Amino acid sequence: MNGMNKNTGILKRIALLVKPYWVRLAASGVLSLIISGLNGGLAWMVKPALDGIFMKKDATLLALLPFGILALYLLRGAFSFFQSYLMRSTGAKVMRDVRNNLYQHILFLPINDFRKESSAMLLSRVINDAGQLQGLLGYAIKDVLVESATVVALLAIAFYRRWDLALISVTVLPAAFYGTQKFGKRLKKVSSDGQKKISTITEFLTETFSGIKMVKIFGRQGVLTKTFSDKNQSYYRELMRSARLIEVTSLMMEVVGGIGIAFVLWYGGRLVVRNVISPGEFFSFLAAVFMVYTPAKRLSATHNNIQQAKAYLERLDELFDKAKEVEGSVSLAPLRESIEFKEVSFSYPASKGYVLSDINLKVKKGEIIAIVGRSGAGKTSIIDLLPRFNDPSKGAIFIDGVNIAEATLPSLRQQIGLVSQDIILFNDTVRANIVFGNPDAPEEEIIKAARAAHAHDFILELPKGYDTVIGERGVMVSGGQRQRLSIARAILKNPPILILDEATSSLDTESEMIVQIALDKLMENRTTFVIAHRLSTVQRADRIIVFEKGRIIEIGTHEELLRNNGMYKKLYDLQLASATGQA
What we know:
By secondary structure, the chain is an alpha/beta fold. The chain has 2 domains: 2-320, Up-down Bundle (ABC transporter transmembrane region fold); 326-415 and 542-583, 3-Layer(aba) Sandwich (Rossmann fold). Helix content is 65%, strand content 10%. It has helices spanning 2-18, 22-44, 46-55, 59-107, 111-116, 119-161, 163-170, 173-210, 212-217, 221-273, 279-320, 379-384, 409-413, 430-434, 443-452, 456-460, 479-493, 509-523, 558-564, 567-580, and strands at residues 338-346, 356-364, 368-373, 394-399, 402-403, 416-420, 497-501, 527-531, 543-548, 551-556. β7 (497-501), α18 and β8 form a beta-alpha-beta unit. The longest helix is centred in the middle third of the chain and has 53 residues, at 221-273.
């Protein structure tokens, strides 16, 4: 009973997936009935053909019969073509819809989910798991429609010709389908295991190709080749387990079919010998039975396909079941007065303690706030709360008195620009990367933003200027140029709130000077949060916030903090000594 309920569940799920294309399915259903009728017609013609030609020596029938058979085969071929095309296109459309919905769903998941799942795993779900549905659903639905109707039509002819022989021939089928169901359950698990292994291969390849420089410099090609070979072999074994289950099911159907046909031949042959039935009647019946076993085998394979589809759908459901980011209903107006952190504490899900504790901070509009501290002090954690990449475990953040947890995410994030050391550029043109946050910007505004970011001149030197494709993560341009493009993108978005997260930490001195000029332009008339290890870059901040172990321990200007002789002074002296070669 449980198995039936589960199968009903998967059939309902498939029905929901194909529901938008019910017109195609209806047309395919009509074609299926026609095809089944033609299959039945071929079996029906055996009796008049044999009796008329071999018993009555009818020359006219002999002359006409080949044309009739040819016409039936041509019609069946034409209808089968259109029916198969409709089902294949339906499978492709379902795959397209699943991928679209899955991609959209993933984009709205909380950032924390991206920390749990690697990008390669997500890629495998969208490409591999969703892709498997195309063939499985297309073939499964096609075979259910065509082969089920064909089995019914042929069995009707078989029972009409000789009910006792028909009863004998179908007695063995329940045992075959019972075995098919048992193997199908095992196939579902094997299919699920196989998809997990191909996901690990996708993840491994993604990491290898993205870290190819490290692979080469440490000479790890041989080790990684062996690792990949092992993973590939493991996936191969799962494929072979799946193949064995499928072929065992087919073998079982062959054996069962052979037993049924052998017994029918023996029993039916005796009836012909005793003149109980004519040879034409017997062979017409036999043709129907022979033709029944082929669609029965396909229905058995369809059951396996449905079990495989169930495994893929369950893996996809793991993602679809993840809750999207929670957002409020208040449309947040542009920043007018201040941003305030009230009693804010934060802990990561896997962390035992708080990484931020009891943060109270009020930032006025237009103020430049620098956030400094040792690594792991909580600098990035506090900034990630502002665009709600994470939410406070305790306390709240307010913009002009509105709790940002009550604001809609678009109205909140539209106000925030981000320039970080982890520069994210896309494998697209320079223009497309700059307008990423403001796709409707006119050309003059794009150029103005590029000039402000000190990027316009080097862009013009590229092979196609603003239409140059810069490669994955912007590999076709230098680090300083990538950073200036990200600054141009932020300038074009024109946000009232700006986050600079180690924006110059990975640059050489000359590039840093150029980028810093661009950043100064970007920070004009904006409320800015600057995270920096290099304390020389934060000296012009209105206030410097010093973090230590998730708490604010000092606040003041550069001069005030130096006079206090606290943590900031220690960090400053260490960097100064390092820069002058004294440490």
